[in-house]
User: What shape does this take?
Amino acid sequence: MTVRIFNTVSRSLEDLSPIGPPKVGIYSCGPTVYDFPHIGNFRTFASIDLLRRFLKFRGYDVVSVMNITDIDDKTIKRAADEGVPLEAVTDRFTDAFYADLKTLNCMKADVHPRATKHIPEMLEICRELEKKGLTYVSGGSLYFRIGAFANYGKLSRIDKEGILENARIDNDEYEKESARDFVLWKGKKGDEPSWESPWGEGRPGWHLECSAMSRKYLGERFDIHTGGVDLVFPHHENEIAQSEGASGVSPVKYWFHVEFLLVNGEKMSKSKGNYFTLRDLLDKGCDPMAVRYLLLSVPYRRQLNFTLDGVESAKSALRRLQGFSSRLGEYGLQQLPSGPEKAGEIEAFAKAFGESMDNDLNTAEALAALFEAVRAANTMMDGGEMTREAFDAAGKLVSDFETVFGIPLKADETLEEEVERKIEEREAARKSKNFSLADSIRDELKERGILLEDTPKGVRWRRS
Ligand code: AMP
Ligand code: ZN
Assistant: This one.
């Protein structure tokens, strides 16, 4: 059982072989907290969550670090527009980010370091780069001289010929087609928030924080660095230049990049205005677990076109799994005959589920195997052929799905309790010959997709 992941730097699938097993250190570029993230951002964050859960499932001790970008052009602009201090904006949207993570059942990282709390660590990297002759000062700002760093372009395979001599860039966002010297420390402009430095008062360029914080929390070399594909260039290329330039060590063993969530064939993004936040979707009545299921159902290296119909389909797939899980639970209450050969059928699908996940988190194939197992187990139950061993194998697969995908199928235990209570109310109504109340309870449940069956052993219920 070897986990294989696609490494952007080699452009190939590689066996995961951590630097210090069983530990796997993962650094993820986190949100810029100037607004609510959109669900494109959450495709990346949910995929990272899946990676963490799966590696844990495979027995690794995952240590996860995700930064919070709380100083950049956008956060500064928002605070200025609102006329409030920077932290008023960044605290608000950091909390909103954590709340959204929770709603989508994404685990928080072990550490969420904030850029503004790591200025000394960033300045230290600048000093080391300066000592190595990789920097120069221009117009009160400190720049990284990419022409002096031999490995520049290794990750993105950007054409180094395209380096524009002395072309400098100091915006946090810029055109991505050509390599330019990038800013490490920006000289103070106007009344922007600023800190003292050997190069004068100013603030860090965007790329610097990730080099400083990954080194602080995971060391000079760590296992996996993640982010969306749009970060490959320039952000991650520049991170390598800073980290490797300072320490002489290649910082990351595996680069893991998540493809875009699209809307009508275009990247979902704030600037295009074609986005939904998670809150928009909840307001439309979407089930957050259906959103999570949708975001994870297409393997992370394939683009995924977002539609509300897609959320609906995800919801019905989820309902099938929930229905199966509760049917299995009820079925298992009876005496089942022993028969290991029936288990083999389910176990083959369980194996395919695990192998698909080992194969670069191929969730589409893993889910296909899961649904095959559901079909096989349902057929066994329909025909009264379910054995104790097959039942156990199916139960284990359902629980593996819950663990790896982070989607609890028994989430509506509260629903189950409520249904049981309604059934008792209906029984009481029938006993007191209040048949109209009994019927209205039955109808109300029917409308909610719960069918009651009166059997000699009492009332049973199932989802329609
Ligand atoms: P940001 O807050 O803009 O720095 O983005 C946070 C994360 O979301 C980064 O890893 C981005 O690469 C990722 N991201 C942004 N837009 C999308 C999208 N449409 N689909 C998937 N990931 C995205
Ligand atoms: Zn980063």
Remarks:
- The longest strand covers residues 181-187.
- The radius of gyration is 27 Å.
- Residues 29, 31-32, 40-41, 43-44, 227-228, 230-231, 258, 260-261, 267-269 surround adenosine monophosphate (ligand 1) (CB under 6 Å).
- The mean pLDDT is 93.
